[in-house]
Give the backbone structure.
Amino acid sequence: MNTQALGIEHYLAGMRAALDDLPPNEVAEIMEDVEAHVAELSTELGENETIEQRLGSPEQYAQELRQAAGYPPRTERLPVTTKKKLLSRPRAAAWGLGIATGVTLVAGTATLKEPAILLLPAVILVLSLALVHDRGPTQQEVMDLPETRKIQEWLTPAEGTPGERALTYLKSLQPAWWLVRAGLLGLGAVLLASRDITAFLFIAGIAVLSVFAGPRAKIDRRWLWFSLPASALAVGLLVQVIDVTEDNLAYNSARQSYQAPTVETYQNIYAYDENGKLLTNVLLYDQDGNPINAPQQYYGCRGSDPQPMIPANRYPRPKIDYENGTCYTVAPSEDAPSSTPSTPPSSSGSATSSSVPPTSVSPSK
């Protein structure tokens, strides 16, 4: 059946070539009737019978139609070996569609970051579609291009082969893909809504039109210039959404596993020398000369307390007691721990050196 269909397509192409000296609109009118007749006749052909056995060669059948319609005999035709323009209008339209579809696929993977990148394939599509704006001969010329026919052969495997069964199954999934495609485009539009309202409206419009473009492309091939790039854009957006999702999951996982270091603060510090003797009036500074753990300049009771205020970085600090609403300070020696450290400090450093502040800082008085 597939081989027979290809034979009919070749037969119709031969007829168009035999009629190409007539005005394009007249050729389109003739071929419209011929295609319907040939399609009906093909259902009556036997297993080993060809359309040429019924109607004769394409040139003969075309000549019969000329005579029946009152057209003049065919004018002299250029030899087949005559060189044609490399980039004819049909070929430019077909190549424009292919290039725009590929560019759209690549651009789709970066659309969420830079929506303006879609302008390039959009311009290519508009220019190439302008070449096939009519539904008649130009579109058929695109389908008759050697590269187009080669693609059709690749997409038409022999009947009964695994490739043919797989292709038939994939074709049955086309309506589902049209809905999935619209959903992916809609998701991309939603992700862009808060950043670029123009891009949101543009992609949302493509999502809506893509639902109608799929089935219409089977009837009117001009819709392929919308349907194929829309599919490429949906696949590109899917790739980008997967990439962004993986990055977010990795970031959240790393964030959950990370534990911020615990910063401890101390109300008091007790320093001992190498013999286990408690040191008093020790002033502590960091490497920059800032008092350690001293948010306030002075520490102690105020007001009626006869004892003077002491620097807040002097250790050990006195204990603060209250009796009948009056503040009293307890001498550091009275507030010291009851036991000395179990392991004396190393003799390599003198404990008394900690009482000397850095030269860049003046000790508090």
Q: What stands out?
A: The chain is about 50% helix and 5% strand. The first strand starts at residue 271 and ends at 272.
